[in-house]
Write the structure tokens for this entry.
Amino acid sequence: MSPDAGPKYLAVREHLRRRVADLPEHTLLPPEPVLCEEYGVSRITLRRAVDGLVADGHLVREQGRGTYVTRPGIRHEYRESFVHRIAGFHSVMTEQGAQVGTTVLGQQVLPVPPAVAAELRLEPADQVVELVRLRSVDGLPNHVVRSFLPAEDYPKAATEDFGHGSLYEFLRREYQADLARARIAVDVGTAGAEEAEVLQVVAGSPLLVVRTTVHDGYGNPLVHSFSRLRPDVSQVEFEVSVDGR
């Protein structure tokens, strides 16, 4: 692998992100030649790393002054609590007083993808409603969520206007769905070109990936979703209860 390959600049950017997080705001970074020597990379690689931190609001460039530390203006936490109820992103953020925006990027009926079939216990010939939404908070893009529901069980999901409101509340309202428990997996991905554009990050930026499968009280899977979140404005929080307490 060449020193300028993608993973190299991503590694430099992540190290710089942790580094500037410990520095006071308005601290100037060392000059580019110093940082290039320190990280053992070319100027192009270093600039790609810094560009990502500028786009995410961790650094600011000023002509004649240099690059200095700043802080993202607003931090919104992505929270889903599964102790007392299953409450989706829209409900939780609205209760916190935030203005939640939704842009529907895709809504269609299609054959179930193999990975989704396993989560929803469907056959390869079954169809699902796929719903893709960009969620924002107070006007800032937060994450892209892709949800899958069995088309036979929830046909109205193919035509419902999801430009506002909660998918979970829709399921409760229209189908009296019993959203009793959820299984969540969290890992890390990177933003593709289209995803980076809607989330307003640099392509290749790290993203948090949250996969959620919601079940009813009998253990039947109802909906499977995966959210891809900007880590600079997101924090996944879990609450755990023992024996329902």
In short: The helical segments are 6-21, 32-39, 43-55, 89-95, 114-120, 167-175, 193-199. The chain has two domains: 8-69, 89-229.
